[in-house]
Fold each of these.
Amino acid sequence: MDDDVHAPSTLDAGKGALVVLFLVTMIDMIGFGIVIPFLTYLVEDLADGQNITSTGIWVGLLMTSYSAAQFLFSPVWGGLSDRIGRRPVLMIGLVGNTVFFTMFGLANTLLMALAARFLAGVFNGNIAVARAYIGDVSSPKQLATRMGLIGAAFGLGFTIGPFLGGELSAPAERWDVFAGTILDTHPYLLPCLLASVLSIVSLLLAFRYLPESLAPEARSTRTTQTWSATMKRTASNVQRMLGTKNIGSLMWVTFLYMFGFTVMHAVFILYTQMDPSTGGLGFSEADNGRIFALIGILGIVTQGGLIGPLTRKFGSLFILRLGSVLSGIGLVLIPYSTLDFVWSWMILITGCIAIGNGLFQPSSSTLLTSLARRDDYELGAVMGSQESISSFARILGPLTGGYVWTITVDRTGFFDYHTAFHICGVLMIFAFLLSFKVEFSHAEQTSQ
């Protein structure tokens, strides 16, 4: 454990601060989710202009670049927040959102789009800081509910982002007023501009209403290190934490879950946009945006209203396991959709995925925070390490999904376009089984 560990802040955040933190987290997820409905179509448009045929690989790369940047820089932001406080780090992330959302919308080559997504991820490695903020200002009994608030922000961002991305894509094709404008030549700029505006509003609110959660006497006393030294120290911390029985096991559970969940991010729209004659659904950008919006709405209900009472009754470990099972069922069922009653089928599938994810994510954060406190680890460093592990999973997931899809989509037999979704289910099973290595008493869980 670290020598300079300090007790958490005793600041009790007011409703205004929690609302701003909610918005910061929501904006982060808008930035991640806004590209999902149109990413495949954007890649196809840019690839056609550059005579590139491997669109599946580029979809995976663009999805992965954001997470790769978070993997590299989340520990940096987490460690920096332990030294200078949570508030300035969160605000830096919002500035980055504003700039790089717009840059992505203006991209006219695949390399420019890739750079924009990577830089957005660099400046958006602050979700770990938001979770540490909640840990700073929450009592044990408040923790699960307030982590659920962050989870609800994820859900709302995942609702707004894909919905905006789908409904506002190619506006010149829908509304004559945009014909011949920059929104005609850059058909995916409008949702990105709106996301930038939301980020600016959130930045102004944070400047005015978000107090610092970490008192000066509670901050780390480490001197500022170079990036390479910080990364080496972070790698050492991650390795050490992964070696612990409880925190390490929980990090591996989260890694497996996120790996499986993000395989879906790459292959879901590759499947739904397929022609029905080859087994797909023939969905448009707007159709896909509505599906992800439905996932987000169900996630809001789960994380905003259900996670607190369920945790108090059953404990975080049980809820985490239930979430992994439900998510696995939903993900495996995706490629078995049919055009007959397709939206009823989608409600069933997305219900499993959204409720499962809504149960898993806040439960994982709650357990990790409680274990870090119990075992006397520095919360910002622990959350930064956890976010790095999750980001690494989000790197592997889309790349794995895109590669498996590419080599199986045109095949028949056991390995075909269903295979990537089967992999999701297998990873969820592994996460479920590994969760039994985490030791946390029922009394500790239900007291959160």
Note: Residues 192 and 375 are 42 Å apart (CA to CA).
Amino acid sequence: MATLKAVRGTRDLLPPETALWNRVEATARAVFARYGFGEIRTPIFETTELFARGVGEETDIVSKEMYTWEDRGRADSDKGQSLTLRPENTAGVVRAYIEHGLADSGLLQKLFYIGPQFRRERPQRGRYRQFWQIGAEVLGPAWSGSDSALRDAEVLEMLATFLDELGVKGWRLALNSVGSSTDRPRYVEALKAALAPVKAGMCENCQRRAETNPLRVLDCKEAEDQATIDALPKIADYLDDASREHFALVKAALDACGVAYVVEPRLVRGLDYYTRTTFEFTVPDGSGLGTQNALLGGGRYDGLSEMLGGPKAPGIGFAIGEDRLILTLQAQAGEAAEKKLDVFIAPMGVARNAEALRLAQELRRAGLSVEVGDGFFRLKKSFEAADKLARRMIILGEDEVASGILTVKDFAAGEQTKVPRSELAAVLRG
């Protein structure tokens, strides 16, 4: 019988790596809370129409990468519907904002999420068909300040703080503006016109995108297309006065906070809902991501709520590729030492098993991490297991139980000491 394995493009996350995942997520929750964000948890699947309308039918995500199926009714009279595993989470968050009437409070909504997304793309290093994202959205009625350049800068400053607190080295913030809902169509038409005479000499993807989604041509990484792309019109030349002022205010606020950035004229987001500020954080070569070194990205989406049938609710958000962030932390930290438990308890004989468990209960309640051996083990096996799992070992024999004086071996120091049971937790913590 063939061995069953995880589906291509998915994988299992195992200890001790999951400890790093937990640290990343705990840091995100702590940092985001300081900026007033609360957690939102949306369904893993939504109606297909949500992504067709919100992300855009001509995007690669909707046209090629979504996991979609027809959900039949349980009875002939039930109406079926097309459902899709979420390929991104912004559309779902805005759908929830509309459905639950969050606009009625008149307050700015700051929401973050952590969870899996799904896209049927070619698996490669740091990119999976089930991948994890940490993201956040800030949206609300215009009078709540949701369309202010201050919000853009606050989100970017928060991300810089998050990466710094995680210890990500050498991150780089690239910034651009794709203009308003009126600027962008004018620029897209200019791109189409400029691409028309040259697209035949570009890669197959660029030829297709030149017709369906010209902005994505600017994302092309094919070396032979770069000279052509560099000669295309720049979106900065198509911004109206309001968009220019908004972008200038974002940069001024970042300057005031000391957040370094570079303006990247070719930086656009390929999804239909983006307007004005767009951004991307990258890491240096050698950070574990190969040539595709983007760590996270996002931007402003002032018209998305209306696209989904809701009230006007300007917003800005981002998504962090958590899989890629983990790879970066691992590559930049090198081979980090595996974290060991505080103590391993080795009962000498089966008769000491129950007392060993009671001792473990005491130490765990005192905040220590503990593993319990088994009295069936020979002493040599207990030593071997303890050395692999923990920093110290407690030998629990008949004399130790009777006297209340326990034998503690410290593997790093190579020393063995006697400790009264009443002082044990304090000594182990020290």
Note: Residues 17-172+263-333 form a domain with the BirA Bifunctional Protein; domain 2 fold (CATH 3.30.930.10).
